[in-house]
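Hi there, hope your week has been kind to you so far. Thanks so much in advance, here it is:
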Amino acid sequence: MTHGTRTDTHSPHSDGDRDWRDTATRYALVPLRLFLGITFIYAGLDKLTDSAFMKDSGAGSIGDMMRGVRDSSAIPALVDTALESPVAFGYAIALGELAVGIGTLLGLLTRLAALGGALISLSLWLTVSWAADPYYYGNDLPYLMAWTPLVLAGAPLLSVDAALRGRRQRAGEYR
C-alpha cells in the first residue's frame, strides 16, 4: 500500500463543501489575534496613562519595579540596562506594546508584530516574572507561547495583510 502526501489546504472534501470543522480550523487564529491585540493595546495605554508608572522612583513606578526584580531576574544585565533610564524604558515598552497590539488586531505586518510581542514577552519573562515559583504562575511565558502561532502563520484571514495579498494577486492577474 502506498500513501500519498496531502496537497489540499483547507477541505478534505472533493466537492469543496466545508463543514464547521474546516471553517473553525481556518478561523482558529482570529480569537488569539483579538485577545493578544486587545490585551497589548490595553497594556500599552495603561502604562502611558498611569502617572505613577512613568517615574524613576516611587510606589508603582517602572524604576522601583525594575530595581525590585533585578536580583531575581535571569539576566540582571538586561535590568541594569533598563535602569540606566527607567522612564525611557517604560515608554519604549508601552509604545512597543501599543504598536504590537495595533498591528496584531488589524493584521498589519502580523508576523513582525507577533515577533515584537514575543520579544516583549520574552524580555518580561526573563526579568519581571522569572522568579515566579512554580514557573507557570508567571504570565509572561504563556504570552510568549501564544505569540508563536502568529509568528509562524501570520494573519491569513480578516486582516490587512490578507487584503493586501489579495490585491497583489488580482493585480498580477491583469498584467
